[in-house]
Design a protein that fits this description.
Distance between the termini: 84 Å
Number of domains: 2
Order of helices and strands: HHHEEHEHE
Shape: elongated
CATH topology of the largest domain: Gyrase A, domain 2
Largest sheet: 4 strands, antiparallel
Number of helices: 5
CATH superfamily of the largest domain: General secretion pathway protein M, EpsM
Structural class: alpha+beta
CATH class of the largest domain: Alpha Beta
Helix content: 55-70%
Number of strands: 4
Strand content: 15-25%
Strand order of the largest sheet: 1-2-4-3
CATH architecture of the largest domain: 2-Layer Sandwich
């Protein structure tokens, strides 16, 4: 009797593991199919762009296309980290920067938000940033320059 119950538990456990395996396969199947479809479309685009040439020529054409598209990015003269390090190096004593934001796009800019003990320090900071010649425009709201914001300020640096 005990052997028969042991065999039933073993058979039931096997069925449970098989069912779990089927469920796992069904859960992974959509991801597998989507990857296969994406790979097939990339392969067909490569075939179409290469015009029936060999795989080495297709790779060379793709590489040349990538070089052409990425050259302007590689040759960019203004780097946000370089501009940011210049701006922070010119920060006078009494100013604390609390937030740094970078806005990319056609006209990239850096936003420096912080606090100052005196409004004169914000004016001096703005003047030093303008004098550096690194930024095309340095904008500070008038309220920060006259000291009506309890020492809080935002400086916009256009690259």
């Amino acid at each position: 009797m005990q052997k028969r119950h042991g065999a039933r538990f073993l058979l039931l456990g096997s069925y449970m593991f098989a069912a779990a395996a089927v469920i796992a396969i069904l859960a992974i199947l959509p991801a597998y199919v989507s990857v296969r479809i994406a790979r097939a479309s990339v392969d067909s685009e490569t075939q179409e762009s290469s015009g029936g040439v060999g795989t080495e020529q297709a790779t060379a054409i793709r590489t040349q296309s990538l070089i052409t598209n990425l050259t302007p990015i590689a040759n960019a003269t203004s780097s946000p980290t370089g501009a940011l390090s210049i701006a922070l190096a010119q920060k006078p004593a009494g100013i604390s920067i609390t937030t740094i934001s970078f806005l990319g796009g056609a006209k990239p800019s850096i936003l420096l938000t912080g606090t100052s003990q005196r409004r004169e320090a914000v004016t001096a900071f703005r003047d030093e940033l303008k004098a550096s010649g690194r930024f095309s425009n340095v904008a500070v709201p008038v309220a920060a320059l006259v000291g009506t914001q309890d020492g809080r300020f935002t400086i916009t640096l256009s690259l």
